[in-house]
Backbone:
């Protein structure tokens, strides 16, 4: 029997099916159907909560997952994939022949990647559960957006259970130090991605860097050449992660989430949100973590 491998797709859509009932409304309906004294109301969802944030439609904002190709695991908890680490003698820069290029020394091997559970718990204001529409909107907007932040953290820094390695510290990722001018440093780091045979298609930056790129027109130029820029507070202000993200890794998406309402019993009620995610890393050398500190002074 052949070994199943990760098949990369284009980046996932910004949102789930807009015609589907929202997770918040489904939880509100489950709460209405539960016993009035039920201490816990749980809702299993066959989707990924971090794709359902309603504001993505009106103001597209790329999270880290939107830079990656994806695979629906369809109930699986692991995925075989090919990874291509570099040998210790791999040249850091490409020559003018294939034999002198870094990728000529890549050594492919088969690995298995798992998934982890991302979780947040959000306290509710007193009395909110008595207003179903307001409760549903609060879950869809405030709870889900916090889960998006937690997912960004996991994809960048890795998970506590080590199932997800994290793009910022994955073994084989390269580093670079900027030279002091933001526009030049961005171009230089993007070109460094291509020294190992990739094509820079994404950048993860802190909002401080994102808005500088916006105001000087660089963001529009990057978008014009197909580079998506994800902004998140889960990366240091002076850092930027450049990569051929769709070649670097595949997002593993089991499409399994949960919402749990817990009665506070004298304390605030809380909603817990869970989703599952994994990361199959193929070419970490197509990532360049650039220090832009000099340019941001």
Residues:
């Amino acid at each position: 029997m052949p070994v199943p491998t990760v098949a990369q797709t284009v980046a996932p859509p910004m949102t789930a099916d807009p015609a589907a009932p929202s997770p918040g409304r489904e939880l509100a309906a489950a709460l209405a159907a539960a016993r009035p004294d039920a201490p816990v109301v749980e809702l299993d969802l066959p989707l990924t909560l971090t794709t359902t944030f309603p504001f993505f439609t009106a103001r597209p904002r790329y999270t880290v997952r939107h830079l990656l190709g994806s695979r629906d695991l369809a109930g699986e908890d692991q995925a075989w994939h090919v990874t291509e680490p570099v040998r210790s003698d791999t040249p850091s820069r490409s020559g003018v022949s294939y034999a002198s290029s870094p990728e000529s020394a890549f050594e492919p091997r088969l690995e298995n990647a798992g998934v982890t559970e991302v979780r947040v718990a959000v306290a509710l204001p007193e009395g909110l559960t008595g207003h179903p529409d307001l409760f549903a909107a609060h879950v869809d907007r405030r709870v889900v957006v916090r889960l998006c932040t937690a997912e960004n953290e996991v994809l960048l820094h890795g998970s506590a259970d080590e199932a997800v390695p994290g793009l910022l510290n994955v073994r084989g990722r390269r580093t670079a130090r900027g030279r002091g001018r933001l526009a030049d440093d961005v171009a230089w780091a993007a070109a460094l991605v291509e020294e190992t045979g990739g094509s820079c298609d994404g950048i993860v930056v802190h909002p401080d860097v994102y808005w500088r790129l916006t105001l000087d027109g660089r963001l529009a130029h990057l978008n014009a050449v197909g580079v998506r820029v994800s902004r998140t507070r889960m990366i240091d202000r002076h850092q930027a992660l450049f990569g051929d993200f769709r070649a670097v890794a595949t997002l593993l998406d089991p499409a399994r989430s949960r919402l749990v309402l817990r009665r506070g019993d004298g304390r605030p009620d809380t909603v817990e949100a869970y989703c599952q995610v994994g990361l199959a890393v193929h070419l970490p050398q197509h990532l360049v973590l650039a220090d832009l500190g000099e340019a941001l002074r």
